[in-house]
């Protein structure tokens, strides 16, 4: 198998907002002063670790946070660059937002998979080697310490192959050292847009969760804060958490390309095109209006796609009335431990059930042109 290089970069920068004491531990490279790069050989992956310290600007970039990349052996440079470009755009806009807990947004481990299952097995080995070396206290609680499957896999990136992009751990769940962002394989150039938007989507989740994850490690209490427990019953619902992330993936994707009009091209199909599949389902808009289920009562099991997409349009509806900053301010305010229902009322002036009713009326009683006009134009 061909060798690549293992890069560990330490850049001295200043954090002007929140003091940070996180750093790379137990590395074998030498830390020098500004912009010094130390390079050693390693197999099959490129890993870049950035140690934050001090910077002179209020804007946070990828270079300002502690982040480590693991790449599939067959991954193209184009795929790597697209991920970096779009993560960096999201980081600049979210991790610099007033009030963020910068120390909570890191360290991050990003694993970018290729289409090769054997490569994913190798990445699991390299990931586990990294965890054992740099974050030993978390090793015993991870799948790294479990018996390997017959094919050598550990079920970290190989379970339910092909893996779906996700944030699967964070530094506050007592089981991990880091945010673990795993990116599924994307076929380029066909799936370039998906890669771009998913990079933003998952970075938005880090922003969301970082605000309240250090308040409690009890999932039930966290879900009362972030809205996964809302509506009727205690089942987990994606409409708010995921709806926000989907909307901002569309918004930041368009802005990153300096073409805000793209948001209409990317969001329109989720409402008006048919995702019928083998089940003969109607458009998401028709299902939403005719299923007799409120947006806040859709679980992942009932219709996660509808919850994600209509949740993004509900977010667009709120942004059109209140501005996008109110959504970000909502998440910053979760740092207080305020429950979802009270937090929503605080920032949007009505309880969420009333607002969902009004949104449903808006979607039901307006034509496509009027609905599309709520999307941002700058």
Fold and architecture overview:
- With 378 residues, the protein is an alpha/beta fold.
- It has 2 domains: 3-210, no CATH class; 219-372.
- It is 43% helix and 9% strand.
- The protein has helices at residues 77-94, 117-134, 136-139, 192-210, 219-226, 241-256, 262-272, 284-290, 300-322, 324-333, 340-348, 352-365, 368-372; strands at residues 3-10, 36-43, 67-71, 108-112, 166-169, 179-183.
- Helix 1 links the parallel strand 3 (67-71) and strand 4.
- Helix 1 packs parallel to helix 4 (192-210) and helix 4 packs across helix 6 (241-256).
- The radius of gyration is 21 Å and the shape is globular.
- Helical content (DSSP H or I, runs of 4+): 40-55%
**How many beta-strand elements?**
6
Poorly predicted runs are 1-44, 51-57
- Beta-strand content bin: 5-15%
Q: What is the mean pLDDT? A: 85
Main sheet? 4 strands, mixed
SSE order, as H and E?
Answer: EEEHEHHEEHHHHHHHHHH
Outline: globular
Please, what is the oligomeric state? single chain
Number of domains: 2
Cα separation of the termini = 48 Å
Computed CA radius of gyration, to the nearest angstrom: 21 Å
The structure class reads alpha/beta
Largest beta sheet: what is the strand line-up?
3-4-6-5
Task: Tell me the number of helical segments per DSSP (H or I, 4 or more residues long).
Answer: 13
């Amino acid at each position: 198998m061909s060798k690549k290089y293992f890069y560990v970069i330490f850049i001295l920068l200043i954090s002007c907002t929140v003091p940070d004491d996180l750093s790379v531990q137990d590395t074998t490279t030498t830390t020098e002063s500004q912009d010094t790069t130390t390079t050693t050989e390693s197999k099959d992956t490129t890993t870049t670790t950035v140690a934050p310290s001090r910077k002179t600007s209020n804007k946070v970039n990828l270079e300002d946070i502690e982040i480590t990349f693991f790449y599939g052996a067959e991954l193209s440079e184009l795929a790597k660059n697209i991920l970096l470009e779009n993560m960096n755009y999201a980081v600049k806009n979210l991790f610099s937002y007033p009030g963020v807990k910068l120390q909570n947004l890191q360290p991050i481990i990003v694993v970018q998979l290729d289409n090769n299952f054997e490569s994913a097995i190798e990445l699991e080995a390299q990931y586990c080697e990294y965890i054992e070396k740099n974050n030993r206290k978390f090793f015993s609680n991870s799948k790294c310490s479990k018996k390997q499957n017959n094919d050598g896999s550990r079920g970290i990136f190989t379970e339910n192959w092909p893996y779906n992009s996700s944030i699967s751990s964070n530094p506050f769940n007592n089981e991990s050292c880091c945010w673990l962002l795993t990116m599924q394989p994307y076929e380029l150039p066909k799936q370039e847009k998906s890669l771009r938007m998913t990079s933003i989507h998952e970075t938005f989740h880090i922003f969301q969760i970082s605000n309240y994850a250090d308040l409690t490690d009890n999932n039930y209490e966290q879900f009362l804060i972030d809205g996964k427990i809302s509506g009727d019953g205690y089942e987990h619902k994606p409409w708010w958490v995921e709806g926000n992330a989907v909307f901002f993936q569309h918004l930041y994707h368009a802005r990153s390309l300096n073409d805000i009009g793209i948001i209409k091209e990317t969001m329109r199909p989720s409402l008006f095109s048919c995702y019928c599949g083998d089940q003969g389902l109607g458009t998401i808009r028709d299902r939403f209006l005719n299923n007799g289920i409120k947006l806040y009562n859709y679980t992942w099991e009932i219709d996660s796609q509808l919850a994600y997409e209509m949740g993004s349009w509900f977010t667009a509806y709120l942004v059109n009335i209140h501005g996008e900053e109110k959504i970000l301010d909502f998440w910053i305010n979760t740092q207080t431990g305020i429950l979802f229902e009270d937090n929503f009322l605080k920032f949007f002036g009505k309880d969420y059930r009333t607002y969902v009713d009004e949104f449903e009326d808006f979607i039901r009683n307006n034509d496509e042109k009027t609905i599309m006009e709520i999307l941002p134009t700058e």
